[in-house]
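Submission checklist for the structure archive. All mandatory fields must be present; incomplete records are returned to the submitter.

[x] Identifier: Aminotransferase class V-fold PLP-dependent enzyme
[x] Organism: Aliikangiella marina
[x] Residue count: 485
[x] Sequence attached
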Amino acid sequence: MSKDHAETGNLQPHLNKLGAALDNYLKFEHPDAYFSINEWQTKLDEALPQTGVGIDEVLKILTDTIIPNGSPVPNPGFTSFITTGATTASTLASTASSIASPQRYLRTAFNYVEELSLHWLAEMCGVKHLQGIYSSGGSVANLVALGGARQWAFEKQGHDPALHGIDRATRIYASHECHHTIQRSGGVLGLGRRAIKAIPCDAGGRMQTEPLVEAIESDLREGILPVAIVANAGSTNTGAIDPLSDIGKIAQQYQIWFHVDGAFGLPGILDERLADHYQGIEMADSVIVDPHKWLGASVGVAATFVRDREILNRAFTQEPADYLEGSAVDISEEKTKIEHSLDDFGIPYFDYGVELSAPCRGIVVWAMIKEIGVAGMRDRIVRHNDMAYRLADIARDHPKLELLDTPTLSICCFRYRAPEIKDLDQFNQRLHRQLIRENTYMPSTTRINGQLALRPCFVGARAEMYQVDGLVEAVIRIGDNLINN
């Protein structure tokens, strides 16, 4: 097909075929993609097409070759990393926006829902006093929040860092358990990765406040400018929640921006059993949460919340561009009124973060909350936490298992053990690789106080309690076989 006739047909029949292929994939009856890598890679490996094959052939390749050899991430037994497959509501909403509103701008229903969903998400997660903006993930969400912190810290010194750059040494305080995107944010923002000061944690992975105060006092004596204190509301490693209230008071005492990284764990606030762990969140100057983690959004949806988005405007605003400045009406002028969606860009998210082009992420969050409500989200969070708690109880009592960390959220760290095993770390590493290759239960590993642990993190909307028992049975069976063979 040499000419562009790709859009002359109807979407419906193609979507029906695509939906059927995806439904079949979600049965998870297929082997892992690597099992037949030579076959599908050979089919896909071709030179740049000079002549097109048409949409029907493209759809056939998608449904017959690419989708069946997709990622294990949506599998309910996948508990390796804090990511998951999208729920149906998320998939439908993102598909709708990709056609009906490719960008989040202009005065449309999608732009309106972008803001509405931010209000909903903030209220649901206990930070309704903050204003938000979506981005692609925790990496950018942390960058945006710390960009606001940098702007605020330097403005107090009478300097505009976004306009003039950095003119002195700075510091960001974060625990040893902070996500590595904090260091990357320091590098991107011109503060330097070495500006991140690692604060020791207690045995439970929570930031200790005494070393934090000591570090701040030492830096102040050296003339180093404190930019932010970063606390975890659910660390990536173990799900630990830092003492937010104590850290918030320290931030207030020293007038330092208080940032809470809740990319994974902030939705845990919906579990009423954990309410005390989140006390102090109201003191935060910025908070992030990734709906594409625990809430079931398609990957590429994160949110940054700050007290006043104007600080983000000053930190990230673009210089004027001829092709933009006259493209919308000036509603400040007398008698000017909006008569078309192109008359107004809507809420100017492009000045609150680092993305100009951006999809409508809010429609995804809106759809998920609208579908099951706060009550449905709470039930999911509680179920996942209960899965970790049940696994912890089993590991604590089982003679062949050992619990290495008591879970706070939906992460449980444990391992197989037996008296005849000389090197438990090496043994459990071997066990883990065999477990993964069975393609049914797929946790990751980590180290807890130097000891290697199996680390399932239950966040998938399709994850159910029965999978805990299945995981335990598989670990014990594989461990027994490794000992006996």
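[x] Structure attached
Curator remark: The longest strand covers residues 225-232. The chain has a mean pLDDT of 92.
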